[in-house]
């Protein structure tokens, strides 16, 4: 197997994919920090947003995107209110299995809705597809969606960092993430903090849906499923107990995935999962607590 030649466009594509995965990791990590819940149904939120974009393709761009964000946030809040809140006192295993059940249920619902015209898959016919066009930066052709993805990811990190550091709800969120039980005893309103995390996570999922349909305009019930699995692995690789480490892990595995995919010849891209997850196993063997976790937090209890 001979690697394809490395070039700057390949690097830019890897950075763009890393930025999208970082946004997904940010949404996953934010909810985990509060509820200690790894939400395997997060990809189905992205899928719901993509279907919304497909069904509203004839609308103005801002209307379609706004509707996408509203649908994903509403679904995220409904998921928390109807399912997660009643099970909040249950064991992590019960919560984890529940997210799998929600994921497959939402896929089944999407399949029923999708097959109403006896055709599987919906195509997003929207002007946002023009983000696939390239612009020249220093003589390198870079897709507009890559620039937008990097900008959105950096903007989301900066805004969320400011909210967490400078606002009352941010202080309560950080307290809840550190010790949820003690934070509640000190007067932190649990439902308010959780709602904040769920809404922000939903907004990030909606943003990811918009960015992903640019490259994948055909939306199916398993849309973003593979990407979600990779992001969850990246979150673990980066370090699940801190938001910034989880986000870095998401970016790293997205960047590595895009880079390896670009370097492999077209006929050999089938090897991508093997190479990627092989590297993940090596990293977890060497750094079981997370690649970006240092000091005492890096010491993992072994059985």
The secondary structure category is: mainly alpha
| Beta-strand residue fraction | under 5%
Please give the count of helices: 11
Low-confidence stretches: 298-303
Number of domains: 1
Describe the model.
It is a single chain. The chain is mainly alpha-helical and 303 residues long. It has helices at 8-35, 42-55, 61-84, 92-114, 144-166, 168-178, 180-185, 190-215, 225-238, 243-263, 272-286; strands spanning 122-123, 134-137, 140-143, 218-219. It is built from eleven helices and four strands, in the order ααααβββααααβααα. It has a two-stranded antiparallel sheet. The chain has a two-stranded antiparallel ribbon with strand order 2-3. α5 packs across α6. The longest helix has 28 residues, at 8-35. It is globular and about 55 Å long.
Put the structure in a nutshell:
With 303 residues, the chain is mostly helical.
Question: What secondary-structure arrangement, pairings included, does this model have?
Answer:
Blueprint (H helix, E strand, L loop, with lengths): L7 H28 L6 H14 L5 H24 L7 H23 L7 E2 L10 E4 L2 E4 H23 L1 H11 L1 H6 L4 H26 L2 E2 L5 H14 L4 H21 L8 H15 L17
Antiparallel strand pairs: 1-4, 2-3
Helix pairs in contact: 1-5, 1-6, 1-8, 1-9, 1-10, 2-3, 2-4, 2-8, 2-9, 3-8, 5-6, 5-8, 6-8, 9-10, 10-11
What labels would you give this structure?
mainly alpha, two-stranded antiparallel ribbon, globular
């Amino acid at each position: 197997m001979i690697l394809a030649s490395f070039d700057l466009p390949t690097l830019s594509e890897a950075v763009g994919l890393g930025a999208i995965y970082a946004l997904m990791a940010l949404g996953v990590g934010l909810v985990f920090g509060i509820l200690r819940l790894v939400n395997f149904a997060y990809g189905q939120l992205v899928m719901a947003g993509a279907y919304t974009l497909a069904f509203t393709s004839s609308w103005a761009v801002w209307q379609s995107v706004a509707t996408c964000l509203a649908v994903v946030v509403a679904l995220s809040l409904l998921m928390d209110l109807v399912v997660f809140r009643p099970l909040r006192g249950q064991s992590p295993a019960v919560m984890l299995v529940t997210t799998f059940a929600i994921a497959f249920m939402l896929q089944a619902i999407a399949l029923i809705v999708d097959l109403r015209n006896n055709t599987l898959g919906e195509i997003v016919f929207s002007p946002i597809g023009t983000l696939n066009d390239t612009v020249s930066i220093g003589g390198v052709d870079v897709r507009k969606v890559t620039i937008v993805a990097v900008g959105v990811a950096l903007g989301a990190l900066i805004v969320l960092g400011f909210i967490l550091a400078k606002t009352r709800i941010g202080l309560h969120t950080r307290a809840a993430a550190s010790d949820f039980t003690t934070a509640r005893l000190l007067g932190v309103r649990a439902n308010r903090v959780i709602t904040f995390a769920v809404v922000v996570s939903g907004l990030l999922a909606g943003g990811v849906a918009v960015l992903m349909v640019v490259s994948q305009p055909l939306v199916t019930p398993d849309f973003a499923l593979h990407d979600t699995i990779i992001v969850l692995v990246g979150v673990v690789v980066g370090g699940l107990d801190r938001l910034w480490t989880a986000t870095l892990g998401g970016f790293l595995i997205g960047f590595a995935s895009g880079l390896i995919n670009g370097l492999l010849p077209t006929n050999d891209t089938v090897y991508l999962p093997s190479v990627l997850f092989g590297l993940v196993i090596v990293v977890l063997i060497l750094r079981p607590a997370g690649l970006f976790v240092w000091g005492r937090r890096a010491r993992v209890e072994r059985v």
